[in-house]
Every structure is written in structure tokens, then in C-alpha cells.
Amino acid sequence: MGLLRDWNYIEKAVQIPALSEVIREALIRALFVRDDRVLPRDLIGDLNRVPPVTVKVKDDGEVRKLVRVLNGQESTVSLGLSAEDYHYFRTQLGVGRTREFGAVMRPRILLTYDWIVPEQRGVQLDFNGYAGIEFADDAHRAIAQVGATWKQLYDGAPAKGHAVPFVPTVPLDFAIGDALYGDAPFASYRGEFASHVNALRTISPFGHRARLGFEEVANNGTAYDLLHATVPLAAEFFIPVAVALRLEAKPAAGKTLTYAFDDGPKLAVALDKLSRTTQMPAWAHVTDAVAAKILRPAVAAEAFTVQVSVGGTTSGLAPKEKAIDTAMAGFKSKSAEVSNPFDVPADAFRKTADTVVRSLFVGEVRVPAKAVGDFITKIRALGDQSAAKAGVYASLRATGTVSTFPFFAAPKDRSKVYDLSKGVRAIASRIPGAALTSRLAHLWEEEPNFMRRMAFLRSLKVTIDTAHVVQPLVSP
Amino acid sequence: MASLDYAYRRLVNTLGPERVARSEFERMVYSHDFASLPKIALLQWKLYPDFVALPQTTEEVAALVKLSDESLLQITPRGGGTGWYGGSVPNRGGVMIDMRKMNHVVAFDPDGRKVTVEAGVTWKDLEDFVESKGFALPVVPVNAIGSTVGGAINSGSSGFGAPRGGSLRDAIAFLKVVLPDGTILKTASEADADGHLANLTPLFFGAEGTLGVITEATLRVVAKPEASKAVAYAFPSLAAAARFVTDIVDSAIVPYHAAVASRDHFIFERALRPDSPDPADIAIVAVQGSKEEVADQERSVDVLAAKESGAKLAPAVTDPLWRERYDNYSARRLSRGLVTSYNLVPVGRLPEAVETAIEIRDKLKLNGAVQAFLVDSTTAALVPYVLMDDTRPSGGTALGFVKRMGDAAFKMDGHSMGLGLFLVFNLRKMHGRATSFISSVKVVFDPRKKINGGKTLEVWTKYPWPGLRAIPPPGMAVGLEIAAVLRRAKPTRDRFVRAYEHGKEE
To answer: Measured between CA atoms, how close is B14 to chain A, in angstroms?
Structure first.
């Protein structure tokens, strides 16, 4: 997602004498909003440049060939283009120039915003056409090509006896690959998206097929777990083309329990209590009234709605429901009839997603369940101050952390995104245990341990991608 | 390289004389881990450390690591020494850092559901502590009595609770690590930020102590279940018991633990403890939840067991079996040593896997048993063990079993676990073309290979001279394959149980 490139750019930029006097945050803001009163115009021009060539991937062999061309192992002749296309390709890539060029992956949908320092030259890979899913017959797993949508996977699994436990907290029509080179917020109650990934099929910066992890089994005790260390940033080290996912058996019976709460403190207590039980629902999704209105326009929105997906044996469902009811004490009403955002026909899902995506999102804020009511109140106050009505989508984890996605009814203007991100970060910093994890938050963070960890990741990237092909780092 | 006497004085100045050992006997204790090694291994490696250091704080560990810049001695971190493949055994002597004096609970945060412990705390002690506070650990490694927190993280362990609690990797909030340059690093953000904010923890999970010395771990804890119950069944065959476990997964029941053990395991147990269960192929399943849920899960599991003709064992048999769950290798007392092979295989192939393990054991004319347990919805751990007597000339050939089992696991689309000093040849089989990326991690963190060098990625010998300094990993594979062939050529089968019974009669 270009995070290392952005971070590297900022780190290098603040070392340049001409820019070192500009304080770090002012520089980040100027870069983010493309402020030509602070930065030279030619730099702004560079920042606004997008990769000139887009390749629609149909086969991973094409990616291999392309990578070998980009890292100089093969000539552009081997791409087998017509003379006219060949000339266009070389001109656009800037072949023969001294500047590095590489490959970037284009997410199907970006929840927040694209990278701050875009790829300066090179090829953008569009994986939307590379979208096959292969479900295993003898085990609960699937291999999804990165262009396959989550909805395709979710809807296809039950027919094969599987269940997909992870869902997008913000219900957009994400591709599976968006969790690797975008910001798709997939997670289940029991774990983050990475914990459901057994392996990645990738193309290495040298054009080889390389598999990280094991498609059939977990990756334990096999030296450094590079797979799980890089999952959110995998596309900065390799070009992922398919994901081996660990699914679960389709339960004999399932139900979505919907609880309505009329205030934040009660919601917070209930979520905290649920996460302190031994219950293991597939997911627990939370919306405030604004978000609920978008997801279910025909239903009167409650202040807060929690939907919990439970599954199990037919006889086991009742005790589970009873235990969850006990944990969720304090709810105003309960229903098992309200539809959830995920188990709807694909067309309806996409239609809702088209509405959801219009809001301005600043990224994920991780909040302890106990503090979620307080957090939402503060987000609303921020929205009111900024003349942008605020709402929240969230999901609960078994760890007691709520993954929240605040959104605002505002145009997706870069200055607005920046200012609201800053406001949300200020709120998160006042809540113990909370953290904004967006790309801007990474750039703002200056804690010494974090800086060292990022430096290690940068070194690792440079060591793995010695050919500087996969989202190459750019220095100002 | 500074003289050993000088290095000793510097170590003593750092820790005091009572926490630095250099006597022959003490060094010998640290020259092997849980697996026994034939004496011939001493020709290849300097398995005895030059010194054993017992630090008590992270700062002392950092000082020891910095000292190695002066002495140029290798650093080998060690926890409980319950590993199987030499990950915590020196290959060129050097300084052994025994972490077991760092065995305190540093902090417990019931609101944040986290416990911070020093790396030398054993899992059993930690489990007892956490339970005394009304919580539970999501995952507890199999050898919880001897295994330390740092040791299990370094070996990428799994164990009890994994089907519900997930991977041990996910149970780690962050680690405090002394890096090869002597600096201290927190591997992730203190906020629960998932993989964001540069989470390097997974790199240290399974790293076998080659990237740095883990000194503290902050782990997540979970709610103590309202009710839990263990049920056990005797099956007509081990494959039937394994099919029962796969049926549990397919029925969407998520147990706390599900394991099988072969009849031979209980024969060994019976030889040692007359009150152990009647030998049979047994599966044990533990379920958790509310009282109603536990009852419902037990009924569902009963139905699945009946499908495979499993006979339910009485609580009087099952309860002690579950209580003694961390004591898996008491059979070691029947021989002079024990060799374990730890592998992960697809759940769907578990019946085939247990039969393959028995077949390999029989072909090699070994005494041993097969154990396996569920890791998650796709994975089962296959952990057979064989007995060996390393004082006999044929004893060391039992190590060939580990090689053959690893090969079988790869054939079944799984993999062996652990690389250490002896199984480095499996690295390329595991990762194929991604091996170079995996190796890059060591280059970035420890370019001078100070910490536990010559393991996991390569096999150093004790000789520092070019040409002899390392063994090509396939060479180790050939050596173990020869051991297996010799073992197969042995005319008679080992009879440890009979020898033991005979000894008792006398």
C-alpha cells in the first residue's frame, strides 16, 4: 500500500537541509494535501503523477514476465507487444532513464486514501480479472486469487461445506487482495485477517513464483514467520497473486442475533462482557444510528446495534444464545429477524456498498471495548465541530478490542481527510489503549521503538527486493 | 578472540561469580536438549558451552550480548531445554545464556487482559498464576511443565487450547528482545494494533533464538471458562481415533483440545505406572463453555465417537489422564533417551498420517508411540516418539526416524516443525524459493551471526576453517538417512518395556 515508500520519503525529506526546517508534521501535511505554498511546484507535479501503464492481469505468468522486464532481466521485446505498443510502453516506462521504476498493485476499493508518494514511473497491476477461487474438497480451506471479491468467497463457501469466518467491518465490495495492498478491514471475532491466512502465492522481485507459508497447514516452527509479519504490507515485499485461506466447517445451524442499545456506556459494558465469556461467535458487528441507517434504510435505526453471528449444532444453538443474551445484558431490544450486512444477495450488497463508500473514512481506530462508548461520543463531537456528521462501523474481537471505523459525511477532500485524521488521532491518544492505525498515523508516530521497527522493515524490504521492483522506495 | 580466562573475568564482573559457571559437569548439562545425541556428534560440534551465564534482568542480558563483541564468543540462549533439534545447544561452545533465573511475573493487567512475564517462567507456573487471577491462557504448549515462555515462542510451539485460542503467535501482544547489537526492542505497539504500527513479533515466533534474546513477553489472557470437561474414548484402531478427530472439525465443534495416542503409549505408561489406563488407541477431547454448552458438546462428541466404534472411558480413567496431560514423555524412563518428531499435517490426512508413523516405526524396528493433536481447522500436529539407548552402538541410528517422519509429513502436504541444528536441510523443502527471503531476516537483524549462529539457516561445525566451517544442509540429510538405513538393517527390534519388566522382577 506504499506505506514504506511514504515513510521512507518523509524520513529522507526531513534530513534534507532545505526541508529540515519545515517541521515534520507540516511537511506531512504539505505532502498529503499537495500544498504548493509549502513545497516546490515541480515536487507537487511529481507527487500528482500516477503510474502511466496499467496492466490488467489475467495470468500470473504475465506478472512474472513483467517483473523480469522491470528488473532488467529481460528486454521489453519479450513482452511480445506490437511495434506501436512496444514503443508506447518503453516511452511511458521511461526505459533508459536513470530513475527506478517498478510495479504497484491497484486495490479494487480503497477505504481511506491512496498513497501519499505515488509510484513515479512503472506499471500499475490491475488484478480485477484475476479472480478465481478454488475450495478444497477434503479440508476447510480455499485458495483465492487476489482479484476475487470477498463476497464471492463468502457466498461460494457454504455450497462446499465451508464457512468464511471473517467479514469486512465496513461492508464494501472489497477484493481479497485489498487486505494485502489496500486497506480492506477483514476480521473475525476470533482473529484478525492474518490469522486466517495459511499462505500467500507470490511473484518474487526476481520473477519467480514463491510461496510464503503452507497452503494446507499452519506455519509454525519453520524459522522466521515472514508471512504474518508482512501480511498487511505484503505487497511491498512481493507481488501476491493468491491467498490460501483457512476456513471453518459450515455449522449445522446458524443465527444472527441483533441487539439494540440506547446509550454508549451500556454498549461498552455489553461488548466488554461478551469478550470476557468463552463464546466464539463468527463475528460481532457494531453500528451506530448513522451507520445503521445506511445499512438498513427501511428499518428505524437504534442508537447502537450489535449483530452477533452464532453457529453450531442444532441443539447447541440455544445454550449459546442464552449465554450471549446474558453477556449483552442492558440491551433495549433483541431480534433474530433483522438482516445482517453480509448475508444478503450480491446485488443488494453492492448497492449498499455504493452508499457506504460515499462517506469519508480516516482509517481504523483500535479501542478497548470498555471505552467504545466514550470514543463514539467524542467522534460525534468532532464531526459536529467539523460540520461533518459522524458515524461508526465497528467489530469486536475476542481480545476485548473493538476495531472501529469512524466516518464523516463530508467530501473526500485531502485537507478535510487530513484534518479529520488529526482530530481522530487526538481523540485516540486520550483514550488509554486506543490507537489510530491509518497510514497517516504511521507517518505521525515518532516513538523510538516504532521508528526502529519501521527501519527494520525498510531494511528487510531493500534486502528482499534488491532489484527495487515492488513498489520501490523513492527519495526526494 | 580474547582468552577464555579474560572472557570469564568479564562475565564474572558483569553477573558475579555465582551466576557464571564453567565447570565440566555444569557445561555437560547444557550440551544437549530433550533429545539424546550419540557421542559421535562431538566430533562435529563443540556441544559444551565455554561458560554458562544466568542473567536476572534484561539489562544483564544486554550486557552479556555486548560482551560478546569483545570475546567474540557465540551466544546461545536457552529456556527449559525441552527442544528436540539442538536449537538451544551450542555448536561452537561460547556463552550459554540460561534464562531460567528470569522467572518472574512482571505485571498483570486484568482490564487489558494481559500478563507480562520474564522469558524464563515455565508455562505451568504461568498457567497457575493466571488461573489464580480468574483468567486462563489461550494456548499452553504441550511440555508446559518444563517449557519456558521464551523457549516456546522461539520454537513456534502449539499446544493445548489452540483449536479455540488460535496460534500462540496471536496470543503474544509484544515481546521485549535484546538484539545482537545489545539494544532492547519492543516488537510491537503496546496498543492492540493487529499487524499495524510495524508488528515484528511474528519474525521472532519460531526464530529459535537466532534474531535476539527474548527477555520478556506480554501475553493475552482469556476468560476462565464457566465449565470444562474432558472425555476419552478407546477406539479399535488409531486410524479410527484419528477419523473421529477429523469428524469433530467437520461438525463445526470447536473443542479446547482434541488428541489421540496410540496403544503403545499406554503400554509404556503401564510399565511405569500400574494405575494408568488399559492400553488402547485412545482419543481425548476437552470442551469448554457454559454448563449447558459443555453438556451439549459432550453429547455431540459422543455421537461422533460412536460412529467410529469408540467406547467412552469412565471419568475415573479420563480425569487422571487429563490431569497428567503435560507429562507426555515419561516413557523416557524406560530407555536412556527418547527421540520425538514434531510435524504438522492436514487434518483431513490425519488417519493416513498416524498409520504412516506406525509403519515407519515398525520398519525401523523401534519401540515408540504415536501422538497427535488438533491445531486448527486445517492442521493437526503429529508427534510420534521412539525410545533409544545412546550408550549402545545402534542407539544413535534412531535419529533416522525423525528424518523419515519429516519426509512423510512433506509428502502429505504438511511439514516438519523445528530446524535447530539437525534439521536445517528441511528449510528449503519448507519454503522453496522463499528460502532466500526467510534468510534475509537474519541478515537484517544479525549480520554478524552473533546470536545462535550456524543454526536454522545453516549448519556450522566447531571448526572455524574454510571448507570445514559448515556442513551443507543436504549432508545432514544424508547422514540421517544413513542412520535410518542402518537402523532398518538391524536384525532385532528394541525391547525396552520387556527389559524394564525384567529389571523390576529382579
So the answer is: 26
Domain containing residue B50: 4-101
The predicted model gives A111-126 an average pLDDT of: 87
Q: What is the pLDDT of residue B506?
A: 47
* Contact indicator for A165, A157 with CB cutoff of 8 Å: no
What are the phi and psi torsion angles at A28 (to 5°)? Answer: -60, -45
Q: Which domains does chain A have, with CATH numbers?
A: 1-250+445-476 (3.30.465.10), 253-438 (3.40.462.40)
Q: Do residues A161 and A250 lie in contact, with contact meaning Cβ atoms separated by under 8 Å?
A: yes
Q: What is the DSSP letter of B386?
A: E
Rounded Cα gap, residues B341 and A302, in angstroms: 56
Task: Sheet with B337-340: list strands edge to edge.
Answer: B337-340, B385-388, B368-369
DSSP H helices, A21-117, are: 24-33, 41-47, 60-70, 83-93
Asked if residues B130 and B159 have their Cβ atoms less than 8 Å apart, the reply is no
Question: Tell me, what CATH number does B184's domain have?
Answer: 3.30.465.10
- Name the residue facing B112 among A140, A368, A457 (closest C-beta): A368
| Contact at CB, A218 and B170, closer than 8 angstroms | no
Q: End-to-end CA distance of chain A: give it in Å, rounded.
A: 19
A472 vs B266, more confident: B266
Q: How far is A301 from chain B (nearest CA, A)?
A: 30
The minimal CB distance from B113 to the residues A211, A315, A399 is found for: A399
The CA distance from A160 to A172, in Å, is 24
- Evaluate whether residue B498 is within a structural domain: no
Q: What 3-state class would DSSP assign to B470?
A: strand
- Please give the angle made by the CA atoms of A378, A379 and A383, to the nearest 5 degrees: 115
To test the contact with chain B by mutation, choose from A67, A278, A317 the residue with the greatest count of B C-beta atoms within 10 A, namely A278
Tell me how far the alpha carbon of residue A384 is from its chain's centroid. 27
Please indicate, yes or no, whether residues B271 and B256 belong to a single structural domain of this protein.
yes
The CA distance from B400 to B423, in Å, is 11
- In the beta sheet, which residues pair with residue B223? B135
Cα of B159 vs its chain's centroid, Å? 9
A311 neighbourhood in chain B, CB within 8 Å: 252
Over the stretch A64-95, which tens digit does the pLDDT of each residue have?
988 888 877 777 666 666 666 666 666 666 55
- Whether residues B53 and B177 fall in one domain: no
Query: pLDDT tens across A258-298, in order?
Result: 999 999 999 999 999 999 999 999 999 999 999 999 999 98
Same domain, B244 and B321: yes
Asked if B191 and B233 sit in the same domain, the reply is no
Residue A448 cell numbers, joined: 523510538
- Measured CA to CA in angstroms, residue A58 lies from A125, A245, A356, A460 at distances of 10, 21, 29, 30
| Helix (DSSP H) and strand (DSSP E) numbers for chain B | 19, 26
Which ipTM was obtained for this model? 0.95
Which three cell numbers, joined as nine digits, stand for B163? 483449536
Using CA atoms, how far apart are residues B366 and B493, in angstroms rounded to an integer?
Answer: 6
Closest residue in chain B to residue A142, using alpha carbons only:
B378
* Band of residue B84 on the pLDDT scale cut at 50, 70, 90: confident
Axis crossing angle, helix B473-489 with helix B400-411, rounded to the nearest 10: 110
Q: Say if CB B403 and CB B337 are below 8 A apart.
A: no
Shortest CA distance to B230 belongs to which of B136, B303, B127, B314? B314
Site of grid cell 478490542? A401
Provide the β-strand partners of residue A197. A245
Nearest CA in chain A to B222: A276
Question: Are residues B194 and A366, on separate chains, in Cβ contact within 8 Å?
Answer: yes
Q: Based on the domain organization, do B186 and B310 belong to the same domain? A: no
Question: How far, in Å, CA of A471 to CA of A122, rounded?
Answer: 9
Tell whether B168 and B294 lie within a shared domain: no
Interface contact flag, A249 B191, Cβ < 8 Å = no
